[in-house]
Structures are given as structure tokens and as C-alpha cells.
Write a structure and sequence with these properties.
The complex is a heterodimer.
Chain A (H helix, E strand, L loop, with lengths): L2 E10 L2 E11 L4 E5 L6 H9 L6 E6 L2 E2 L5 H7 L1 E4 L11 H8 L8 H10 L1 H5 L10 H13 L5 E5 L7 H16 L3 E6 L2 H7 L2 E6 L2 E7 H6 L1 H8 L2
Parallel strand pairs in A: 3-8, 3-9, 6-7, 7-8
Antiparallel strand pairs in A: 1-2, 1-4, 4-5, 9-10
Helix pairs in contact in A: 3-6
Chain B lengths: L1 H32 L6 H17 L4 H24 L7 H23 L15 E3 L2 E3 L1 H23 L1 H11 L1 H6 L4 H27 L5 H16 L4 H21 L5 H15 L14
Antiparallel strand pairs in B: 1-2
The chains are: A alpha/beta, B mainly alpha.
């Protein structure tokens, strides 16, 4: 397994946000994590990327224990989080945002920059604009492209469809699927459970900090409990 | 009439260049950590004192300046490492008070090492004034302006053209995102302190032949650098440079035409006016971001 999480706990002050979470993501897999607002989905991603400390349990990446590793070194290992709400460097240009994505990698990022413009052509026209002036959907593209610039081994996507118009949601999910086809390993967190499970190999359901269900994506889509709680069927 | 005005203007620009360097130092550290580092003036003092005392002891000037630069940078990194980093969960106000403590400590240390006397540093290329349209310019003023110009240009190049500089700016725009692209945000704070200390120390060495150097020289220079940074809009490097020149010119004109007794008061009148009527400064952040 590329990512192996055992008994992971995390706290915000006295709030026990993650309670002994076990999960794994294999090389080339697209794994979805669904759950209600406040279930701890974002906390889980933040703990994986290292910006939120774990208070118990282990995170192994390619067999190496990275539980205590600072966030910037996890990026060097290939773990890239696309944070909720885009979190761009607003006043800096789109191109600078993308180049900063390759900050840890070193070398010449120009070829990757062209790949990103091929993946999201609209960004090429806007490359000199401050990233903060783009529309929500375009900003989401910058956020994903910025993470891809690092050539991630594991891409952590947090709510990529949040706040986007339905047409753009489709576009973002298409991009996620095409990344998977190219072999990128993706751990996808979504409130839009239907869309996420439909493209996922496997899925986990997180409820108040605990994993309550784990199955193949299609099986979860057919699961009565999941249907009732998350799919509104 | 005009010669007099030109004379005031030139001396204002000279001292304003030093305020600009100090203001730039304030902005760099503010951007990296949201801390206003009131030990900025002490970096200037370390630069000035090292240059004056070491050349008096026979050390060649460039070497003396280099020593002052290294000492100030070390001081800056130590402040960041042992105060800001240790107390990183404290509020920004607490951190600012810590920097005031650090500035008092550095002044005390300097008094122990160098004593309380004034030290004179010889001008770099003589004291014969150059006549410019009726006004007289000291060669040292040209040194101050030239060195400040080079340092400001180098700082601008670093932040706008190099990946490391852009990464530091990015950290100030969004700390979380900076961590997520792999920027060591704690390292950024250390580099910011070192960079600000370097700007201050070199500025202190070149201005020392004009102002004399003594352990308290940094207090006023630092506070006026702070005025410059606030006037230009905290965190805006170009603004701090413009702010520094404006404060320097206003001060020199005020001292010339009103009374030199009010020279120091002018900077503080400016800061009061800015805080009351223009809290974001001349070039402060405007809301251009979509959420």
C-alpha cells in the first residue's frame, strides 16, 4: 500500500476530531472519503499532509513512518494536498502560483507548466493575472494544477467541487478522472458523495471522526445506509 | 532661496534613504511573521558601531562592515529563533513586546562591548563637499544614496524575480498554502530576520560618518523606519521606500524652515496623521481578492 493509516487520532484542543481511523490507499487507486459536514474529513486530510498534528496512531507512506514529519518535508516525499477553499497566493500571478507548486521539486518546471496549460487551457490566457481575480472554478483549476506541478505520488483533494456551478463541477470531476487514468493516486474528500463514489475504486464513510463503512465505490453507492444518509435517495 | 531648499531636500533624501532601508526591514519581517520588529533600529546600530570601532582598531573598512553585517544577521536570527519561534503560540502583540525587549537587550549588550561614548567613522571618500546648483553635498551622502539604491534594487529583484523570494511573499499571502507547496514557513521567518538585519547593518555603516555612532543611535532611526513602513503601507516594500524618503524630506524641510528643535517630532506627527486618516498607508492592501 502507498498510504497506510493505523489508529490515527487528532484533537482540536479538547475536541476529539479523529478517533482511531484506519485506512489505506494503494498505488494508482482513487479512494473517496465521504461524510457529513463536521465529520472530520478535512481534519483527516490535514493530518495526512502534516499541517494538523496527530495525537496518536501512525501514518506510513511507502512503508516509512511519517507521523511526525513536518508538512514541507511530506511535500518533498510526494504528498500534496489541494486544500478546501482553494487557498491560492491571491496577489501573485497564476504562473507564479504554479511555479511555486514545484518549489520542493527543483529542476526546470517549464515542461510541467505547459502540461498544466494543456490540462486547463483557460489558465494559459490568464497566466499573468493575479490568481485572486479569477473565478471560483478557475481558481480551483489553479489549486489542482499547483499541486500537480509537484508531480505528486499521492494527491489529497479536499472538496474540489465546493461552491462551483454544476457545469464546472462536471469539468473538475472530469479532470480528476483523467488524472486517475494517467496513474495519479488520489484520495478524494467530497460532500458530493454521489459524484465522488461514482468515480472511486473504493470509498470510506466517516461519521463524527470514525470510519463506519468501507467498501468498493459502486457497492457504497448501492448501500441502503449510504443512500439514505448521503445520497438523499 | 532655491539653494537653501535644495540643501534641505538633499539632506532629507540622504537620511530618508536610511529610513527606507529600515522601513523595508520592518516590512519584510511583518510579511513573514506579522510581527513588527522593534529591534530593527538595533541592527542599524550594530552595523554603525562595528564599522566605527573596528576601523578605529585598524581593521579595513570593508572587513569591518562585513563583520557588522554578520553580527547583525546573527542577532536577527537569534531573536527569531529564541523568541519568535519559541513563543509562536503567543499573540502578535506579545511577540512585538518581545522584540522591544530584544532591542533593549541588544542596546545593553552594545554598551557593555563598546561603551556609551560617541564613535566617529571617517567618511568613505573624504569630507570635501560637492557643489550642486548652490547647495553642498557631502560625498558620504552619495555613498548612502548609492548603497541604499543597490540594496533596494537587490531586495526588489529577490522578491519579484527569484523563486525563493516569491516563496517568501507567498508565505505572507497564505501561510497554509505555503506549507502545502512545501515551503518551510519557519525557515522563512529566519531568513526574513536575517535579511532585515543585513539591510539595517549596511545602512548603519554607511550613515555612521554622518550621524556618528553610539549605542542609542538605533532608537530614532528604527522608529522613523517604522513610520516609513506605516506611511507606505505595512508589508509593502516599495511603499516603505517611498515612505522613508517622504519622512526624511519632511523632517529636513521642517527642521530647516520651522525649527530644528521639532525635527524628531515631525516623523511622529506623520505617523499620527497616517494612523488617523490613512490606516492602510499610501499603498496599503486593497481588496482585489475574490473569495
Amino acid at each position: 500500500m502507498l498510504l497506510e493509516v493505523r489508529g490515527l487520532n487528532s484533537h482540536y484542543g479538547r475536541i476529539h476530531a479523529l478517533k482511531s481511523v484506519d485506512l489505506s490507499v494503494g498505488e494508482g487507486e482513487l479512494v473517496a472519503l465521504v461524510g457529513a459536514n463536521g465529520a472530520g474529513k478535512t481534519t483527516l486530510l490535514r493530518t495526512l499532509s502534516g499541517v494538523q498534528p496527530a495525537t496518536g496512531g501512525t501514518i506510513r507512506f511507502e512503508g516509512v513512518d511519517i507521523t511526525g514529519m513536518p508538512a514541507h518535508r511530506r511535500v518533498a516525499e510526494g504528498i500534496l494536498q489541494v486544500p478546501e477553499g482553494r487557498q491560492l497566493f491571491g496577489p501573485q500571478s497564476v504562473e507564479d502560483n504554479l511555479r511555486l507548486g514545484a518549489y520542493r521539486r527543483g529542476g526546470d518546471p517549464d515542461a510541467d507548466l505547459e502540461r498544466m496549460y494543456a490540462l486547463f487551457p483557460v489558465l494559459k490566457d490568464k497566466r499573468r493575472q493575479p490568481a485572486g481575480t479569477l473565478s471560483g472554478g478557475q481558481q480551483q483549476m489553479v489549486a489542482i494544477a499547483r499541486a500537480l506541478m509537484a508531480r505528486p505520488r499521492l494527491l489529497l483533494l479536499d472538496e474540489p467541487s465546493m461552491g462551483l456551478a454544476p457545469l464546472l463541477v462536471g469539468e473538475i470531476f472530469n479532470a480528476v478522472q483523467s488524472l486517475k487514468r494517467r496513474g495519479t493516486t488520489i484520495f478524494l474528500v467530497e460532500q458530493n458523495a454521489y459524484a465522488a463514489l461514482a468515480i472511486a475504486d473504493r470509498g470510506y464513510v466517516l461519521e463524527t471522526g470514525e470510519i463506519t463503512l468501507h467498501d468498493a465505490g459502486s457497492a457504497l453507492l448501492a448501500n441502503e445506509r449510504v443512500k439514505q444518509a448521503y445520497l438523499g435517495l | 532661496m532655491f539653494a537653501e531648499f535644495l540643501q534641505y531636500l538633499l539632506s532629507g533624501i540622504t537620511i530618508g534613504a536610511i529610513y527606507a532601508l529600515a522601513g523595508l526591514g520592518f516590512s519584510i519581517i511583518y510579511n513573514a511573521s506579522h510581527v513588527i520588529n522593534f529591534a530593527q533600529g538595533e541592527f542599524i546600530m550594530i552595523g554603525g558601531m562595528s564599522a566605527a570601532t573596528l576601523t578605529a582598531a585598524g581593521v579595513p573598512l570593508p572587513l569591518a562592515m562585513l563583520f557588522g553585517l554578520a553580527a547583525a544577521m546573527l542577532g536577527g536570527v537569534l531573536i527569531a529563533k529564541f523568541t519568535i519561534e519559541r513563543a509562536r503560540n503567543a499573540s502578535v502583540v506579545t511577540l512585538i513586546i518581545i522584540t522591544i525587549g530584544a532591542s533593549i537587550f541588544l542596546r545593553g549588550l552594545a554598551e557593555v562591548v563598546w561603551g556609551k561614548e560617541f564613535h566617529r567613522l571617517a567618511a568613505f571618500s573624504g569630507d570635501d563637499p560637492i557643489a550642486v546648483m548652490g547647495a553642498a553635498v557631502l560625498p558620504q551622502s552619495l555613498w548612502v544614496l548609492g548603497v541604499a539604491l543597490v540594496l533596494i534594487a537587490a531586495t526588489g529583484f529577490f522578491f519579484n524575480r527569484t523563486l525563493a523570494g516569491k516563496a517568501m511573499l507567498a508565505t505572507s499571502h497564505n501561510r497554509l498554502a505555503a506549507q502545502l507547496v512545501g515551503i518551510n514557513v519557519r525557515g522563512v521567518v529566519l531568513v526574513a530576520f536575517a535579511l532585515s538585519a543585513a539591510l539595517g547593518a549596511v545602512g548603519g555603516a554607511v550613515v555612521a560618518p554622518i550621524t556618528f555612532s553610539y549605542t542609542e543611535m538605533g532608537i530614532m532611526l528604527g522608529l522613523k523606519g517604522f513610520t516609513a513602513a506605516v506611511l507606505g503601507g505595512l508589508g509593502n516594500g516599495a511603499g516603505a521606500v517611498v515612505g522613508g524618503l517622504l519622512v526624511g524630506i519632511a523632517e529636513a524641510l521642517g527642521a530647516g524652515y520651522i525649527s530644528s528643535a521639532y525635527k524628531d517630532a515631525i516623523a511622529f506627527v506623520i505617523i499620527l496623521l497616517v494612523l488617523m486618516f490613512l490606516p492602510n498607508g499610501l499603498f496599503g492592501k486593497r481588496g482585489t481578492e475574490r473569495v
